[in-house]
Amino acid sequence: MPSYQAPVQDVSFLLDDVFQIDRYDNLPGFSDATRDVREAILSEAAKFSEEVLQPLNLSGDQEGCTRHDDGRVTTPKGFKDAFKQLGEGGWLGLAAPSEFGGQDLPSTLARAVGEFMTSANMAFSMYHGLTQGAVAALLVHGSPEQQKTFVPKMLAGEWAGTMNLTEPHCGTDLGLLRTKAVKQADGSYKISGTKIFISGGEQDLTDNIIHLVIARIEGAPAGTKGISLFVVPKVLINADGSLGERNGVSCGSIEHKMGIHGNSTCVLNYDNATGWLVGEENKGLAAMFVMMNEARLGVGLQGLAVSEVAYQNAAAYARERLQGRALTGAKDKDKPADPIIVHPDIRRTLLTIRSFNEAARALALWASLKSDVAHRATDAKERQAADDALGLLTPVIKGVFTDTGFANAVAAQQVFGGHGYIVEHGMEQFVRDARIAMIYEGANGIQALDLVGRKLPKDGGRAVMAFFGEIAAFAKDNGGEEALKPFVTPLSNSLGHLQQATMWLMQNAMAKPDNAGAASTDYMHLFGLVALGYMWGLMAKAAADKVAAGDSSDYLKTKLVTGRFFMERVLPATATHLARIQAGADTVMELPAEAF
Amino acid sequence: MPSYQAPVQDVSFLLDDVFQIDRYDNLPGFSDATRDVREAILSEAAKFSEEVLQPLNLSGDQEGCTRHDDGRVTTPKGFKDAFKQLGEGGWLGLAAPSEFGGQDLPSTLARAVGEFMTSANMAFSMYHGLTQGAVAALLVHGSPEQQKTFVPKMLAGEWAGTMNLTEPHCGTDLGLLRTKAVKQADGSYKISGTKIFISGGEQDLTDNIIHLVIARIEGAPAGTKGISLFVVPKVLINADGSLGERNGVSCGSIEHKMGIHGNSTCVLNYDNATGWLVGEENKGLAAMFVMMNEARLGVGLQGLAVSEVAYQNAAAYARERLQGRALTGAKDKDKPADPIIVHPDIRRTLLTIRSFNEAARALALWASLKSDVAHRATDAKERQAADDALGLLTPVIKGVFTDTGFANAVAAQQVFGGHGYIVEHGMEQFVRDARIAMIYEGANGIQALDLVGRKLPKDGGRAVMAFFGEIAAFAKDNGGEEALKPFVTPLSNSLGHLQQATMWLMQNAMAKPDNAGAASTDYMHLFGLVALGYMWGLMAKAAADKVAAGDSSDYLKTKLVTGRFFMERVLPATATHLARIQAGADTVMELPAEAF
Question: A65: helix, coil or strand?
């Protein structure tokens, strides 16, 4: 049975020392999140994740979800009670407005809590993750009445939320969607069509499910310009707020899939279901993007979260499993063999995972701080700069964290040898669960294209220039310090690769867009490595400062060694990504389709 | 439902044009394998793989194996009949000696056939793959009587074979094994102990199962020097060759595992089972290594085989799935969207997989030719050189083919978007199946250590120097030819990286073995990339020669473009591997075990 311990100390180091979150006291909600409050919340979240959610992870995978003949779906044993505890504990509304029952705390703190819960049980956490995404969309685009009707119940965990985009013939290309909405005399709409891959589309956790659905209003323009967003509750709500009749939406089947078995992935049939427009007619895609951007950060976090729990179990196994002897001679002669952690290749594997996890955690919180600033700062310029950074990094976090998180889950499984392939150890579940994060909320190829095709050129490259400038300034300010040279020198080198790649794209992709497409995935990973390297720079500086001030804790020593490993062993891949980008699209595009 | 078409033309190009197998006519068995014979065998194998084995792959995964209360194990529907056809078709003895019912053909041909069958159904192919491994061990180390008793029935597919090494506390480190053998008055042994992870350990395909088991004879030395190999039939054999009493070996349970569900992975309990020594007392590990080296090449081939079938299905999907428009403007305006193969990132993904597959196929056949020469040539020096090359490349083929084959299965699954995560499309099965190949027959970390720690320094580096010399000579002979420059220049560059890495190991790993351990996985992949690049050099030369001679087939054009993609986009990773190797072991080894 796998185990999990939430990295509370690491989050505190990031919030307290690296990002010095107390500097943001002027933002609404931040002054309430004092160090004591933060630590209390993190330790409660850790407890809930470790003791309630994690024990349901393996059993939830093995039992899976069941659809009954009447269309009801049963989630695994224990999920319903855990969801109840989640709602009652106030976890869903941590960063939500207090007028709807939330706690107004920084979303940065909620993000850290989200990592813990996802590490403990990814399939479970999707139920509330999507609920939070739906809340976010309603808070931005919903009418005051819609907000009042739905949000408090959703934040209390009494009702859940879903996101309905995909149809059988239409995933990435939403312009192809066929689900229809017909306006009724009372202002509502009748929605008909089939949606697939709807996570939590039907379940037995909550009394109601609030579906956010994109559909095409009769007579709307073709393509993405004719898409509107609707809120469609599973059970209609009476004027007094009580639950009324069942709406015309039902679960036709649930998918048999590779992983996340604890989460029901549904085909939802809409048959003249009653829905209400969210936001404006034909502006549904923009409204859905609020939810999608939120969800993309959440999915990126899934990559980190699974990587973290996989690491912890692999490290524990490596310390315990006796097999073979150290290359330099037996370390523990009294035992029949040494623990496999004596082997450099095992350590290389573990440090590869860990040095990603710690930097990714930093980058996730860095991005969440940008989100808080973008939403809460009073200064428009400050909000703009934060929003630029968040928009730029969102596809990077989604794509790089999930690709790397999956690779790390595979690497952690490898530490277990044959035992890693066996269900009961739980390592293979991490791999199967982590796999979906590379696909949903926009497959990673789409993230790469979003980065290269939209985020880079946006506003004349304002966001990317600011980001490069921030890293260059950090390197300039700290390059002279001896303790930081092992960080700053490789970071500057890799930033150079990223700048060369960016320049190459500017010179070669305007006239020939295929050069951007052929470069996109390598560019995204090159970008991600530099961003993670920058986080290591920031963490090393904070750690070195504390060491210089007399802190001699093992935590800081380990932090600095882990960071050096990243700079020596992981970051050098930027050179290969640059070479691939500069190879251009000619060979990639040369063959006719039928040659493949 | 996934589909599969065996790459017969590609194998023929390799055998006929690249390796010019007719040059080996002087080797026993080769002159019988004329071009006509080869093509007949390959096309029959293709038919059997496509029509009999492939249709059982998805259903076999879903049904899995069942252990009954009495210890019997049932394999999935259709497997038994297919195994019967396999035996009757003579497929098991293709390259085996005719005195035991084999056909004496080159093992190179059997290897090509093995790829087809594994692509079609990996879980199924393990039953006969391990049987062939057991035959190989018996042919080298078994007594004439053992050979006569077991081999003909095994080649006929009437009996199967297995390989029993692992115990619960002992996988890589076989010196820890506890299974005991007690010598009896009649020269036989009583074997007692528990073996785990035994593929095909119990099944309903054959009347008997011939287990090859390592155990420790009472009073034998501790560690690997006290290991002996035994043959232990599931059912004892009467003097007249008929089946007698059931032996004391039984299946205690079967594992629930990530993939290869169609293959039964058994816990085997030996309880005073009767066995006979194979080879000499306490020399069991050497005997088992005959089987293991054979099996390692077979497992390497699994990486390629799954990568190939995953590629084919991803390419077909990419040609058919309509979604979005080409970056350069709509390609097919009459349709609602373009097929996704118009996108550079999809092509990049497909070409990454394909350019590996074709080079890996070449390298597998190149190594099999070395094996044939090593076993069949009359000239001792020629045999030695071939054996050197085979030994050197075996860990590379096992480690690199399975790591890359898995990564490719994941990449192919990604082309399907959300549909790739759903069981019915079969792509997620390829990922789950491919995963085990990185683990069994020596986890890939062990392969890397075998390469760096044993194969490199062996005989003063004779094998590696010969291999580098061969590539350098190729580059020298062909570097002047314009058509080959896109191949020779990057190959020489990457060979330079490999030589620098090798030099670095010579200078740094003798005094400090951890430098070898910390470098091993990167070195193995660097080595693999150069070996695959060399194969592209050979293939490009053969293709360019045919083009120059007037062949204008699409096959050759595609081959040359695919090769250029490899040189431009895949091979450059050698630089990063070199940088990682040269980073050394200091940071990797710096932390105490408890810091992980």
Answer: coil
Per-residue pLDDT of B165-222, as tens digits, reads 999 998 888 889 999 999 999 999 999 999 999 999 999 999 999 999 999 999 999 9
Question: What's the rounded Cα separation, in Å, for the pair B324 and B333?
Answer: 11
The residue behind tokens 């260059």 is A472
Smallest Cβ–Cβ distance between A328 and the set B348, B513, B573 belongs to B513
8 A C-beta contact, residue A24 and residue A230: no
Residues with Cβ within 8 Å of B112's Cβ and at least 6 positions away in sequence, in order, are B11, B15, B42, B45, B365
**Considering CB atoms only, which of A420, A565, A576 is closest to B588?**
A565
- Pull the structure tokens for residue A91: 């976890």
Work out the pLDDT band at B319, boundaries 50, 70, 90. Answer: very high
Mutate one of B258, B317, B428 to test the A interface: name it (highest A CB count within 10 A): B258
CA diameter of chain A: 84
Provide the chain B residues 73-132 that lie in CB contact (below 8 A) with chain A: none
For A291-317, the pLDDT digits (tens) are 788 889 999 999 999 999 999 999 999
Q: Which residue has the tokens 């085979």?
A: B390
| Contact criterion met (CB < 8 Å) for A341 and B593 | yes
CA torsion angle for A198, A173, B405, B62 (degrees, to 10)?
Answer: 30
Q: How confident is the model at residue B331 (pLDDT cuts 50, 70, 90)?
A: very high
CB contact under 8 A, B420 and A439: yes
Q: Where are the domains of chain B?
A: 458-589
Which chain A residues have a beta carbon less than 8 Å from that of B540?
none
Instruction: Give per-residue pLDDT as tens, A555-595.
Output: 999 999 999 999 999 999 999 999 999 999 999 999 999 99
List strand residue ranges (DSSP E) for B155-248, in order: 159-164, 180-183, 189-199, 208-217, 228-233, 235-237, 243-246
Write down the residue that tokens 């083919």 correspond to: B401
**Helix, strand and coil percent figures for chain A, each rounded to 5:** 65, 10, 25
Residues in A 332-391 with any Cβ partner in B closer than 8 A: 336-337, 339, 341-351, 354
Using CA coordinates, name the residue in chain A closest to B445. A345
Min Cα distance A346 → chain B (Å) is 8
